[in-house]
Amino acid sequence: MEIKPGLSALVTGGASGIGKGLVLALAEKGVFITIVDYSEERGKEVASLVEKIHTKFHSKLKFPSVMFMKCDVSNSRDLAAAFEKHFLTYGGLDICITSAGIGNPVPFSKDQTDGTRSWRHTINVNLIAVIDSTHLAIKTMEAAKRPGVIINLGSASGLYPMYADPIYSGSKGGVVMFSRSLRLYKRQGIRINVLSPEFVETEMGLKIDPDFIRLMGGFVPMQMVVKGAFELITDEDKAGHCLWITNRRGMEYWPTPAEEAKYLARSSRLRRRSDFKAPAITLPESFEKIVVHTLTHDFRKATRIVRTPLRLPVKPNHVLVKIISAGVNASDVNFSSGRYFGGKTSDVASRLPFDAGFEAVGIIAAVGDSVSDLKVGMPCGFMTFGGYAEFIMIPAKHALPVARPDPEVVAMLTSGLTASIALEKAGQMESGKVVLVTAAAGGTGQFAVQLAKLAGNTVVATCGGAAKAKLLKELGVDRVIDYHSEDIKSVLMKEFPKGIDIIYESVGGDMLNLCLQALAVHGRLIIIGMISQYQGEKGWTPSNYPGLCDRLLAKSQTVAGFFLVQYSHLWQEHLDKLFNFYSKGNLKVSIDPKRFLGVHSVVDAVEYLHSGKSVGKVVVCVDPTFQKQVAKL
User: Fold this and answer.
1) Out of 91, 176, 297, 558, which could bridge 539 as a Cys pair, Cβ 3.0 to 4.6 Å?
2) Are 621 and 598 in contact, with CB atoms under 8 Å apart?
């Protein structure tokens, strides 16, 4: 909603403190205002200020541009009269801000009464009146039949405990959860949000111990509160949101999407909703796939395309998947050299030929007996060997239902799941940390930087080239280090002298050594790959890191390896979380623009990835004809 002359706003508690600051800011935009407050003297004084501001916007009006209504907000009858007067005067209500609030006059631990004149009244003003006001605002907006925004004033004390005043803290906590629970009113064009600033220099704020205020970073400027309120009003995507404002952390939404995902129930395989309609699938007699026929890190020499019969019927507890898109991974060359099977080279060679490719998305084309939760036409992803093929038969338990079989979903598989699970489990990521992601513009790096940012962290990212740096800035990275133009070590030493708290590392070699040196006290380094060591005449060559144990011991640091296969029990949960972020617009998915069409292009795609030129996830469109029939996400 654009804040402009002619809109109308009702502000409770508008004669002082934050309410007064918001009233004057709205007046500067030419908004008609009703000030609701218990203090008649202050209310009339603020109304007079608004009238003076309004002279540059309004003249010769047949109605007042500002009204003051004396009201005890805990009196529901008087409150309803104020809303009715506003509606009759301005013909509607565009903005409602409930900022009336009080502290508890008697410390809870010393209250010897029944609380009628102390904490019960605090709850009536701070919480019950907010509920009343919100209800009245919704009814008024519905009567006017036009969109509206309601901002309820919570408090940082409603997000974490305020030990000096548990009643105030509890009442504001109620405001926060009440407001966030009204998100569905957005369907009616009414957006309800909550603003939760830390201490502001108001009459109430000045009662707090000055030493504690200094400890919290000082008073939050009124300008920042106004900026936050205006953001909640103008951003049409903000509904049921809580904006937390502090001097220490600035403005951020609480909880972060990553934190919110911890309590959101994930959809089951049977209840998953999708607007995707699968076209009819004709099953051929045979199909093409890529197999590894000789063990070498040179993917082109290691593989060949073969045509194989499509064997029906589908085995019990299995499904047949028509593959639409397959993902390309740096570790394809490790797979083609046999490194993922373990044992001696002669033992691995006895497995030849074996199917190549780790991940793909497609459509279930047929199901075997005893499969009840997956249906023909259902989109799914999978991460089993054999993704570089036109069709594949897999155990039903390995099928991961998805909303659509699009390239963006391919990126969410190995790349997205590695970032999501590794940061949570191996990195034990929390908010307020400095997180470094290496090779950040690649398939998994793009997810790591965004998930770290969504969790409320400062994100640093390394990349090579202007195009990659541009992508990372668009993804919200705080500091992009392009090693083509800057020295990574120098930047980290100068700008992050205390070190990096969490490092998401996929390059190996010299980069890994540099990251070990940059790790902070109690820092955690997650190794998810060593792409710099995958290529070369001898393939993956391990490196030595002398003094590593001494270094870790000296700073209580942790180095954790992460291999996605060992976390398969979390795949569906984290895939659902990633898709939920993506569908809400909280997560962007970058697909490399270079097109690879058909199984015959897989080798070119693998070599392109290792050239270092890729930006985002490299994906092979296995069936271009089929994909043209499907709308993008």
Assistant:
1) 297
2) yes
Q: What is the pLDDT of residue 351?
A: 87
* pTM beyond 0.70, yes or no: no
CATH fold match for the domains 8-254 and 410-583: yes
DSSP assigned state of 15: T
pLDDT value, residue 92: 95
The 10s digit of each residue's pLDDT in 296-328 is 999 999 999 999 999 999 999 999 999 999 999
List the chain domain ranges: 8-254, 410-583
* pLDDT for position 612: 86
Superfamily of domain 410-583: NAD(P)-binding Rossmann-like Domain (3.40.50.720)
At residue 589's C-alpha, the angle toward residues 449 and 506, to 5°, is: 45
* Of 190, 222, 241, nearest in space to 23 by CA: 222
Tokens at residue 106, please?
Answer: 């008697």
Among candidate residues 558, 486, 470, the one with its CA nearest the CA of residue 515: 558
pLDDT of residue 269: 46
Domain 8-254 superfamily per CATH: NAD(P)-binding Rossmann-like Domain (3.40.50.720)
Residue with tokens 């036109």: 390
> Over the stretch 26-73, which tens digit does the pLDDT of each residue have?
999 999 999 999 999 999 999 999 999 998 887 788 899 999 999 999
3-state secondary structure 227-288: HHHHHHHHCCCCCCCEEEEECCCEEEECCCHHHHCCCCCCCCCCCCCCCCCCCCCCCCCEEE
Q: Which residues of the chain have pLDDT under 50?
A: 268-272, 628, 630-633
Distance CA(521)–CA(498), nearest Å, equals 8
**Cis before 279 (ω within 30):** no
Question: Which CA distances in Å does 592 have to 21, 408, 526?
Answer: 48, 11, 25
pLDDT of residue 536: 54
C-alpha distance from residue 35 to each of 11, 46, 138, 143, 539 (Å): 5, 8, 18, 21, 73
Q: What is the pLDDT of residue 317?
A: 96
Q: What is the pLDDT of residue 271?
A: 42
Burial class (CB in 10 A: 0-12, 13-18, 19+), 204: middle
Query: Residue 400's closest CA among 572, 582, 270?
Result: 572
Per-residue DSSP letter, 8: E
